[in-house]
Structures are given as C-alpha cells and as structure tokens.
Amino acid sequence: MNDLMPRVPGRPLLWPxxxxxxxxxxxxxTAEIYIVGGAVRDALLHxxxxxxxxxxxxDGIRLARQIANQFxxxxxxxxGERGVGRALMETPEGxxxxxxxxxxxxxxxxxxxxxxxxxxxxxxxIRGDLSLLIDPLGGEADxxxxxxxxxxxxxxxxxxxxxxxxxxxxxQLSFRIEPDTLREVKMAAxxxxxxxxxxxxxxxxxxxxxxxxxxxxxxxDQVGALGVVLPELTPLHGLAQSSPHIFDGWQHTLxxxxxxxxxxxxxxxGRSDNLTGAFHLGMVAVALDRxxxxxQAQVNTLWPNERPHxxxxxxxxxxxxxxxxxxxxxxxxxxxxFWGHESVGAKLAxxxxxxxxxxxxxxxxxxxxVQHHMRPLLLDDLTPRAIHRFWRQSGAAGVDVCLLxxxxxxxxxxxxxxxxxxxxxVERIRILLQAYFERHEQLVAPPALVDGHVLMQTLGLKSxxxxxxxxxLIREGQVAGEIHSTDxxxxxxxxxxxx
Length: 499
Fold this sequence. Notes:
By secondary structure, the protein is of the alpha+beta class. The chain has 4 domains: about 1-145, Beta Polymerase, domain 2, CATH 3.30.460.10; about 155-230, Orthogonal Bundle (Hydrophobic Seed Protein), CATH 1.10.110.30; about 235-445, no CATH class; about 450-499, no CATH class. The protein contains 26 helices and 12 strands.
C-alpha cells in the first residue's frame, strides 16, 4: 500500500486542545508538517497524549525552536546530526514533549516506512484537516486488531532497540506481537549487546516505568532480550532458594517486582479499592498512609534526562538478589544458604549501573538499595541506636530500602504468608519511616555537639578513622538520650579512647 491520501478513520481521532492551538500557530507555515508516530496511534485509541512527534520537509530544529518560542516553552537540540529539535511546554493537560524532525528519506511515505511498527506509522496533516488519517501501511487495521506488526522486513534487526520497544509497547497497549514480527524480534535480541548503552538504558527505564512492568519483563525474558540487557539476571533462573523462599531465584525476583509495584500503587493517591482489599496491602495502607505524600514525592523524583526514580527503584528490585549465585553454599542438611550476597550484589549492581551509563547519583542510589535491602528484615530490636544506624548506613536510600524489603518479604512467601510476621514487619517499617519523616533531628541526624576539628584540638588527635568513630559514638549517645552537651560528648570520647 502506498496511499498517502487523507481519509476518515473508522474511529475518530481524539486530539487535546493544545494540538489545535499548535495547528493554528502553524497555518501560515509553507513547509509540510505532519503529526506522526505514537501520538496519532494514541489519538486513534483515545489515549492521553504526553509526547507529540512532528515530521517536516523543513528544518526540524528551527521549527522546534519556533514552537517553543511561540508557546513560551523550553527548547534544546535533541540530535544535531539528524536535525531533531525538542520543545517542552506546559499545557492544561500537563507537560508536553514535542519533538520535530526532518523526514527520514524522500518524503512522508519514506519517513513512515522507516518507522518500527505500523501502528506508529500513521500521520495527520497538522496544517490540514486533523480529523483525517494518513495510513499507507495499514496501521489502523493493526490497531483495531490490537497487534504490533513491523513496517517492513528488517525493521527490527536494522535497529535492535526496537526489540525492547516492541516488548514495552505490547505490554503498554495490551497488544500482541504479530508472528513474523515476533520471529524478527527474537532474531534481533542478541544484537542489543552492540546497541548504544544510552539508548538501551532509556528504553529499559521506559519499560520499568510502566504501571505494571512484570508482563513486559516476562516477554523480554522469553524473547531473549533481558539476558542481554541485564545478564546478571540469567543465573537466577532455576536457582534453588533457602527457606523461607518457596520459588526459584527468577520467579522470586519477578514476584518482588510485582509486589513492589502493588505497594507503590497502594501508597499512591490514585489507588483502587481492589488493592487495599487484599490483607497484606490493606495493612500497608493502614500503617503507612500518613507518609503517602513523602513516599510519592520520592518515587516521583526525576533523575537526569527525566528518568523516573520509580524505574530506578524497580531496577533495584530486579537486581536485589543478583549476588546470590556467586555466594551460594550448601549447608550440612543439603539446603542452600547465601553468605555475603548483599556485597556481591552491590558490586554487580554498580557494574551494571556503569554499563547503562547511569548518573553518579543514580548509581550510588542503586548500589545502596541493593546492598541494604535485607537490613529491615534483620532488625529485631528497634532501639534508638538501631534506628539511627539503619539511617546512617542507608542514607536517602533508606526509604527505597524499606519499600523493597516489604516486597522482598512477600515475594519469598507467596500464599504461605504468615499474617503475624507480616504485621510485625509492616510495624517495623512504620517505625523506621516515622523516625525519618517525623523524628529526623532526634533519631536520624541529631545536631552536632562537636566536630572533628574540636575533637582533634581538645583530645590531641590526628586526622584519621578514629575521628569518624568518635563522631558516630557521640551521635549514637545523643539519640539514646545519654549525651546532651558538648562537655558530655567530649567526656564520652575520652572514655572511648581510654577503654
């Protein structure tokens, strides 16, 4: 099919008001300009639009700058070589990302044919009638059939990132991948090893940011993509677990991701009654609802290039047990135990963060969450000192650690969950979060009574690890109510040195 004639679709295209405002602003432009890609698909499916792609026979960067200026938005060059510009604008429907690029090839048909899947290869003339659809590759029929079909043979192998995109969009849209396309997806999956790490990272984070990413993760595993992108996960398949785990390493990991997704949904403002109707999630809501705002603020944090913290947290859930195969030992009864796997897992997580080109902040957070994810499960006696030590060692990652530990507990036990044990853990997490959000100065970071300089000057010490040990000792004395003044702090330091 080669027909670029606009026609009335079987289902009306539903555009937000901003698109009509944009169309009005471009009426006098002489260049060809079309809305293309996922925006047209979503307009046909009546899904909300957060991203709009424009294709033009003119200068994409210049047009993006013009649009940003017109609507008082932000502009930057997305890809100078391909002539792609991005405008970021605030609209009544929320923030909108608008990318403008020159045609891929000689005209609109070549541009659409060079795209990934037919449902993303439809267009609408923004300078014409926005109720009409341009669909030379049959994207509307595939949308109605709820299937992803490649635009041409080799569309996926020519750009292996489309393997992850196929998996993500199939889960996101509840579409199936058409059989010939699926075969090409499986064929192209090993090629992800040679793809740009930054592009792999960005597509992986989009997948993890889905409301329910487990279905996409299962598909990514089945087509052979996940083991290429996150090879640390491969040894978890079939890994026998020790009590109380009742699943192998991979099934446990998927369950942890699923439970963490449900816990985040339970602590969101848009949660459903179906979630809190389950005992384990209902108890989370009862105990932790008062911290819902603070938890959401953390989960909704954006890292560089607007990568969502939620996706980073779910990546930590995926990697939380990657050290176990290397640390596995059989005990005298033939059961498996894992000694020191948290430190092994933290090292592997750090290596993967570097390979994915994560920022330093993301890398540190990922490693900390993986390294400390077992700590809340092992805290039996929540004395002020124990609470302080937890937050001193986990830092800002502690909130993430608390959430992951809840999911890890559920993922180990499945239907064999002991309600009393669960209530005890939820209460433990409540106490930890209360300390962080409500008693921060009292239990987490008490005001300094002395600093390292005072200790060295008063006690005749040299700079070194002893100073840090003394400062930790004094802070712990403060949270325990044993040290209240500078004199008491110095006296405690002297006793420590003498003893």
